[in-house]
Amino acid sequence: MQYTKREQVFLAILAFIGVAGLNGVFLWAVLRRPEALSSALTNPIAAAFIAEAFILVGVLAYFLARWRLSRVHWAWFVLLSLVGGLVFALPVALLWRSDGGAR
To answer: Which residue from 25, 40, 60, 84 could staple onto 19, CB 3.0 to 4.6 Å apart?
Structure first.
């Protein structure tokens, strides 16, 4: 699948927002207020969202490989998700598949 130039730019911006914005805020909060992380981990509502995110990472990794939407190996997708979040990993995996050039 090829993406238009506009789609490629949108995916790149989305990846940047994920890694620098959302993941950056998470890392800043963990370093600034480490007690908030332990509080979130003991909260059953937060634990449910965390579990859902981990399950979705596995499901997305499987389907990206199964449907051949990305050239990124499923293990790399999982690693990218853990390092930068899904908002980072999914656009990166989709852009990696790009066959070089817009329509």
So the answer is: 84
